[in-house]
Amino acid sequence: MTPASPQRAENEPPAEIDLNPVFVRPGEASQLPRFVMPERQMSPSTAYQIVHDEAMLDGNSRLNLATFVSTWMDDEAQRLYAETADKNMIDKDEYPATAEIEERCWRILADLWHVPDPGNTIGTSTIGSSEACMLGGLALKRLWQERRSAEGAPTGTPNLVMSAGVQVVWEKFCNYWDVEPRYVPVTLDRLVLDGHGLEQYVDENTIGVVAILGQTYTGLYDPVKQISEELDGIQQRTGLDIRIHVDGASGAMVAPFCQPELEWDFGVARVNSISTSGHKYGLVYPGVGWVVWRDREALPESLIFHVSYLGGDMPTLALNFSRPGAQVLLQYYQFLRLGREGYGLVQRNSLEVAQFLSSAIAGLGPFELISRGDTIPVFAWRLKPGHTRNWELYDLADRLRMRGWLVPAYPMPESITDLVVQRIVVRAGLSRDLAGQLLGVIEEEVAFLDSLDAPLPRAARGAGFAH
Q1: How far apart are CA 180 and CA 458, in angstroms?
Q2: What per-residue confidence (pLDDT) applies to 92?
Q3: Do the strands 16-18 and 31-33 form a parallel or antiparallel pair, or are they unpaired?
Q4: How far apart, in whole angstroms, are the C-alpha atoms of residue 337 and residue 433?
Q5: Which residue of 11, 60, 141, 278 has the smallest Cβ count within 10 Å?
Q6: Cα–Cα distance, 278 to 290 (Å, whole number)
């Protein structure tokens, strides 16, 4: 007998799932409890159909222009995924071949990012770029602690300097690991961390500076070389030697192929570590991330755990223990499948689509671009001041959602939160043809909104954007 469900709130779903009699097998229940485990078994086909039908209510991932995460891979990749879904990345004794491929992948990235000495570097896969950022930040903190301890100085008040436009993972890092966050404000004149006024934020307790290669709000790059040069000047004046972690969640898999002249990676001497998302512009299904350090000295030995397999030594470092190995194999598949040539073609095509859309949207009367989609394939725009009092970008986002397109509107970071922007992320699944159809929908909805002779009703704004 199923336990009684608690009384549900007005908007909660019913406590039971009513099953379609077409796919229920004879003798199976026609109703199932929603919030407690059923008492009896059911056939795999019935269970599949229930989950399949529920998941069908999700949006169309190809039309989700809010997410950076890959939503398409080719048939061979999907077959490889199905064949390797049972592999556990942490179990290097059981899966030594997968462990070997993991090392190949981060060494490929180390080479891509111009590590000075390929034989004296270290890296790892992670669940995503958030874990990779955490590891990069922890290494900076531990290096700072060890240096301060050697000097006989206190180690209780570390701080980390970053743009107010960082991704929320850096807030989490500072919260979880007892580090004071020091946010450099963004303004309309300075939308990125460019080193200006950096001396006001760093001191002897600064563990490092975070530079973002592809800000989530706008897609813009923090100029890593410029930040490094400012830190060079600070060291000359104060003696403070402060290192940089590059949060390259998106840009670290775009810049090497599309902006090869840009100085941002280990070619900049102050860069201690670089993180990226394999499941963003690394073109792999979620979730996999990567972090690589300049050299072994950049990662304190105290953060490394040593696992022995087949008589060898495999250094491991991660916050998570068991995690999927399939995505690591998918990353290697993409490196082999695409190579530098293929990654360049894919990323340049996305950049071309982004700039096609941004130029067309800039040509529409109501909008001004905040970014153009010429760094990573991401751009944002705002409603021109004084254009209308009858609608705002949240209304356009709602209208586009009704047409199947997810194009978020959201406020900018602290100090310019009164500025609301709308953003498009172009990924490999958005073709020029689909982009043209989206543009037609935007034009239709803007024409509708501009035809209003009174303001749209205002409801409380839900959380429409989570970067």
Answers
A1: 38
A2: 77
A3: antiparallel
A4: 25
A5: 11
A6: 7
Query: Could you tell me which of 156, 181, 134 has the C-alpha nearest to residue 319?
Result: 134
Average pLDDT over residues 80-101: 89
Token pair recorded at residue 264: 């941002």
pLDDT tens profile 15-33 = 887 777 767 777 666 778 8
Pairing mode, strands 271-277 and 206-212 = unpaired
Tokens, residue 182: 């020091």
**Share of residues in the chain with pLDDT > 90 (%):** 74
Every domain of the chain with CATH number 3.90.1150.160 lies at 349-450
Nearest-angstrom CA–CA distance, 251 and 229: 21
Contacts of 330 (CB under 8 A, 6+ apart): 73, 77, 80, 81, 284, 285, 288
Residue 440 contacts by C-beta under 8 Å, 6 or more apart in sequence? none
CB-count burial class (<10 Å; 0-12, 13-18, 19+) for 321: exposed
Residue 128 to residue 325: CA distance in whole angstroms = 13
Please give the C-alpha separations between residue 202 and each of 160, 239, 247, 414, in angstroms, as whole numbers: 8, 12, 19, 20
* CATH number 1.10.10.10 is the correct assignment for the domain at 349-450: no
Checking 364-370 for CB contacts under 8 A at 24+ apart, the result is: 364/442, 364/443, 364/446, 365/446, 365/450, 366/446, 366/450, 370/191, 370/218, 370/421
Instruction: Return the number of other C-beta atoms located less than 10 Å from residue 305's C-beta.
Output: 9
Number of C-alpha atoms within 13 angstroms, CB side, residue 160?
A: 29
Task: Give the ranges where 159-286 is alpha helix by DSSP (H).
Answer: 168-176, 224-238, 255-258
Tokens representing residue 151 in the block = 């000097």
- What is the Cα 427 distance to its own chain's centre? 13
If pLDDT is split at 50, 70 and 90, which confidence band does 467 have? very low
- CA torsion sign for 244, 231, 164, 398 is negative
Cα dist. 320→85, 91, 104, 224, 317 in Å? 17, 12, 21, 29, 9
Query: What CATH number belongs to 78-335?
Result: 3.40.640.10
